[in-house]
């Protein structure tokens, strides 16, 4: 997979890491456009190839009364508007086979959630759209096993696969990232580190997932130093009131400083 194949992606000659970032879920047009405008401005300044991220629906919620979305088509149209307005590609996750063709009409990258990445029919449906497929590594899977997930994509004739590590379950309520898996997975496809979901604290008794956002900088720096090709992070201008995953999202006001630091680290590594 060559990231230059992602439609509309910019700054691919900068030799910088690429970034998938945005809110956990599309809560409305104003919030999506506000976040996109800020991140595009920062990534243009730092010459970071950027893909806007937003879930058009949230199917994997802890509680039945949790926010799931504003309506599939409405959210997908907002993602398309972000792309058309700012000239950037977009990514959203899919949960059912029927989602693949529908979402492919609006976005450039289809993401397979970690807990569904072994679902062969879903992965194949995403691959058959011809879109880039971002495969989240299952929290229960080894790095080596992701070779087979990538093969499910490439066997359809679609060579556009990305692997994203989002941590491995460590006990019932914590995640851990084993950086030894990064070079292993890079043999199969470009590797992204999901720094915000890696810091989740799932399975809380309240039914609301927790997180450790204070460690986003630490996790990001470690990922760049370990040689990941890209980073994935969720960000919001008001995480405390976000409708999904607010506990582990990065406050948007902190993004520019973090990305500036990470770009400096990447520049140093490139010079070694």
What are the salient characteristics of this protein?
single chain; 272 residues; alpha/beta; TIM Barrel; 8-stranded parallel beta barrel; two-stranded antiparallel sheet; 8 helices; 13 strands; 3-deoxy-8-phosphooctulonate synthase activity; EC 2.5.1.55
Cα end-to-end separation: 24 Å
CATH homologous superfamily assignment: Aldolase class I
Low-pLDDT regions: none
CATH topology: TIM Barrel
- Overall average pLDDT: 94
Can you list the strand order of the major beta sheet? Answer: 1-2-3-4-5-6-9-12
What is the number of domains?
1
The main pleated sheet reads as: 8 strands, parallel, barrel
Q: Strand pairing plus helix content: what structural class?
A: alpha/beta
**What order do the SSEs take from the amino end to the carboxyl end, as H and E?**
EHEHEHEHEHEEEHEEEHEEH
**Count of distinct strands:** 13
Q: Helix share of residues? A: 25-40%
As a percent range, the share of strand residues is 15-25%
Based on Cα principal axes, name the global outline: globular
